Amino acid sequence: MEAIERAVPMPAPPERLWRAMSTPAAVGDWLGGLGPDGVPHGSDGTHGTWILTTPSVEYVRLRIREVGPGRSITLDWSEFGVEAPSRIRVAVETGPAGSLLRIREEFPHARSVPRVAREVFWDDCVERLRFYLVAEEGGQTPPGIRSISLGVRVPVGTWLPLHRRNLFRWLPVSGPGYPPTAFYVVDDAGPWRFPIRRVEDYFDERLSLFVDVGDGVTRAVVRTHHDGTGVVLSIHHSRWPIVSGAESRMTRLRDVFEITWRASLEQAVRAAGSEGGRHGR
């Protein structure tokens, strides 16, 4: 089995983080909506089933396998109720700034859900849990949907990924020429085309794409910079709109964009390392 692991500091003492992880009402507030058949624990606290809907996944069946020892839960996670289940263990430990949340998911190779989609999902979950803990203490929950922030090291420092001749080699964009007029993401339903309303560039160092996602225009800023040891190509995609009743749809769309951006950065690395990348600017 492949595995995904996270160890994340959280702004709460262990007992309060554990309540957020193990109490049905709290779980529904940050992870997703518990369905009418959701039974969080059996009479001995070591088994049971949750049926829930998350902002990223429409239907999930969870089977609690074990609670404890310590502050930990082990469960089986099956999306759509029919997927080969993942084995997930979450544990709460004492951390230097409050708590440390440990997540480990093992999933079989037969799963149709790609690993990168699960990584994005857990990043979203951790962010929502952090917002929930802050709001529970009377703080303000940051508005909007989590931005996409990614970066990768370009192996060939003389290759310029944001040069107009190289841009179309790795970015999923199209148009009759420069500037591009459409951005593409791909999911199980096939490619989606999103209009690019405006493009702003600064030499070969920064590119801003204003992408229309239907309910508003988002902003993706792509940069290159030297960090002392080489060239880093980074992306920050923000300003995700929230329309009443459509937050789940926009969260899922944002996740598809993140998966696309990750694949694009990997393509940039391949392009830089190719023979054409070594000789071209």
Automatic annotation (TrEMBL):
Q: Which domain of life is it from?
A: Bacteria
All residue ranges annotated as the Activator of Hsp90 ATPase homologue 1/2-like C-terminal domain in the record: 12-130
Q: Which Gene3D superfamilies match?
A: 3.30.530.20
Q: Name one Pfam family in it.
A: AHSA1
Annotated family: Belongs to the AHA1 family.
Q: What is this protein called?
A: SRPBCC domain-containing protein
Organism from which the protein derives: Nocardiopsis lambiniae
